[in-house]
Description:
Function: Catalyzes the reversible oxidation of 3-phospho-D-glycerate to 3-phosphonooxypyruvate, the first step of the phosphorylated L-serine biosynthesis pathway. Also catalyzes the reversible oxidation of 2-hydroxyglutarate to 2-oxoglutarate.
CATH architecture of the largest domain: 3-Layer(aba) Sandwich
Helix content: 25-40%
InterPro entries: ACT-like_dom_sf, ACT_dom, AHAS_small-like_ACT, D-2-hydroxyacid_DH, D-isomer_2_OHA_DH_cat_dom, D-isomer_DH_CS, D-isomer_DH_CS1, D-isomer_DH_NAD-bd
Distance between the termini: 27 Å
Catalytic activity: (2R)-3-phosphoglycerate + NAD(+) = 3-phosphooxypyruvate + NADH + H(+); (R)-2-hydroxyglutarate + NAD(+) = 2-oxoglutarate + NADH + H(+)
Protein name: D-3-phosphoglycerate dehydrogenase
Domain ACT: 329-408
Number of domains: 3
Amino acid sequence: MQRALLLENVHPTSVPILESAGYEVDYRKGALDEDELIAALDGVQLLGIRSKTEVTARVLAETDSLVGVGAFSIGTNQINLTAAAHRGVAVFNAPFSNTRSVVELAIAEIISLTRRMTERDRALHSGVWDKSADGSHEVRGRTLGIIGYGNIGSQLSVLAENLGMSVVFYDTAEKLALGNARRAETLDELLETADIVTLHVDGRSGNAGLFGEKQFARMKQDAIFLNLCRGFVVDVDSLAEHITSGHLSGAAVDVFPEEPKKRGDAFESVLRGLPNVILTPHVGGSTEEAQESIGQFVAKKLSDYVTTGSTMLSVNLPNLQLEHTGVGRIKLLHRNVPGVLATVNQIFADHGANIEGQMLATRGDIGYVVTDISDVTERGASKKLQALDATIRLRIRDAFERPEFPPGPAAR
């Protein structure tokens, strides 16, 4: 029986999907540290995590059985993608499934902060009737600045325009502006224009410290700031100073440089207790609808990979869209060096293999060749493929054998 380990309370809809692929599922609510994870992965082929469990190079080096990791989230910065690729471990995430949930939270916070609902709520809970229009505004006619115009940023752009806002965005990549949104040529231009600034950048290491004292100082007086993307992107000490000084009129933060490991743990931040500041515990995508969708999407991707070899939407391996054919399928992840395909096909020819189809894709220094074979006249080809210097991982799924080979000579 093949085994899957699901951590961090991923949505239970993922369990029957993996069970139907022939996997025994170990379902756990909490995250694991590095040593705990290494021990738990003994004999496990599939791992499912959210954002707290880190799959480091050491974790990957100390498990030979792991073939796939599912990040039940948008981000994959908790996984060493390069090390995973060079161990032949496919990584999948959910790039679209919680987009709407994050966007709706951003809209709710923009309206709440612009109307200073946090302060009105706090006053009433303290028994004070503070009926006043001071500092409260409509969002209609105000300018929203979106930093990062990907799936979330672009959808937020559309909804903000429907509320009567003007939208300006900044992205380092070329992006199609939706509706009447306008692209800012520089980040400074956006900061000097926007009444509300919201971050929606990805988790690449180059974005660490993207937003600090210099950027906050560029923002307009009484502007509002939101971060619903990555905690390490923002200098929260600088944000706290600009709130305390009165330069910024409010902020909403859903992600933090350091976050507690599990529900119920203590939370400390310089942002606690500041006026008109909304703090949420990394719940941008945490709606029941989003989590169910993520659970189904990622589990299906892992299931497809182990049953057909399909790597479509893998974030670290060459992408091939594959379907069942009813014949034997040999899947070889290898170093992308000249001559590998010729060597592979010579081995097949030497063993009398009847090749029904073959597909090859590359991604940087990784290659992926999938060969469908209906018959062989001589056994032993798999051992020769596994022994190739370029082999990272060999997997076979067919009617007569389903071996999961350990990483090959090229794995590092």
